[in-house]
Amino acid sequence: RDLRGFLDALGAARHSDHLCWTGAAGRCLHDLLPLPVDRALVPALVDRMRRVQDLLGRPFAVENISYYGAPGWSPSESAAMGMAERELLVELLDRAQCGLLLDVNNVLVNATNHGFDPYAYLAGLDLDRVVQLHVAGGERIGRFDDLVIDTHGTSVSAEVEALMAWVIERTGPLPVIYERDNNIPPLAELAAEVERLQRSYDAALERRRRAAPLDAAATPRQPAPVRDIGPIAALQDRFARRVLDLSTDAAAAPPSPAERALAAMGERRLGVYRGLIRGSIHRLLDNLLPRTLARLGDAGERWVDRWLADAGPRSRILRELVDEWVAWVVPRWRADPQVPSYLADLVRHEAVELAVDAAPPAEDPPAMSAAFDLERGLVFDPSARLERYDHAIHRLSAAVDDRTTPPAEATALLIYRDRDHDVRFLHLTPLAAAVVEALLCGAPVRGALLDGAAAAGQPLDDAVLARMSRLLADLAERGIVRGSVA
Fold first, then answer.
1. At CA 219, angle to CA 213 and CA 223, rounded to 5?
2. 1 has which bridge partners?
3. What's the mean pLDDT when you consider all of the chain?
4. How many CB atoms lie within 10 A of CB 339?
5. pTM score, two decimals?
6. Cβ atoms of residues 109 and 141 within 8 Å
């Protein structure tokens, strides 16, 4: 329902999603994982696709994914698996009456890795169902069983460009999206590549205009096979456990259908998913918590692995994995004498900086009067956070290669985002921290001053009132305080 409201607000004519799975038993693996190529799954998949389409109130399309193996299929059966996957896709689209977002790069990646003809694959699709095309670039990576990986990190190859043109010549005009997620080249280079793709697209339409419209060659239909994979939930749970190194009770006998299906897939192909999923999570944390993990060195990777094996990622939003890992690791670091005591504060501080940077923008504030109303609370910028640490963490350099140790000193920091969208902080005295904490909790100014002074053990005399007046004026000038509560 939330998604439908979002699409309504955008005026989106349709919605699409990948034909895949992403998690099991409450864990989200943050990758597009292959559904078993098993016709027994068709009724459940068709039911889900129809329900999604009905609930969204607009046409729904599924996108074919790149895959590096499938449970129940051995690497020696790769080519047959590729054709069986297409038959499964055709049947799903027909029975669910859904559109196809055709990723021709994924077709080429799968054809290259599994040894089938990409044009034969495309010829067997119902191209009338295609509503959009994707093109992208992949890379052959040795450590991933020398497979071509759909990285979206290179230019579109001549082979993918030719597949795009082949489809357009048969379908006529369709939207084409060039996906480039990393290793982004300079804008001029990217624009030149888009122009090259546009020329291929236009030439395909011109060939279609000059000649009789082409149809894909007729391909005999063969129902996708049925494989003994057991309950899909059990297979997904076992797959996730193998990827995250959770206990799999491997000694249990006899082996379950799920274990047999994964055994057929092979350790090397399962290892590709293990490397991709774990690698993406490690890179995420390295990029977003650089100072903490740089200080830990190799031990940081082991702490991330311990979290994956003990709990694993839960949120469907990738950035929120930072908070999940920090919540898991901080109490363990505090109990571990081998971990420097200040690291728990540093990792918390880096996580808070991320949260402040990503906080929603403020709505238009009420008019700020020259004097604060003592009987009202204050409106703070949504980014503002008050954090307390056991170390003077703010004295550390922002440099990743800094290895100095902050003094053990109780510290309160008001962290906020300024008008230039830079994350900044104010080091507060115990009195100022107590007053700001009460204000952030919604207390009126008078109550915050009284409670703050009591908490700090100071009398609320003229000198304290003058200091707090200057503090509130400074917060307003910085944009941290945006007005009084109406």
1. 140
2. none
3. 92
4. 16
5. 0.88
6. no
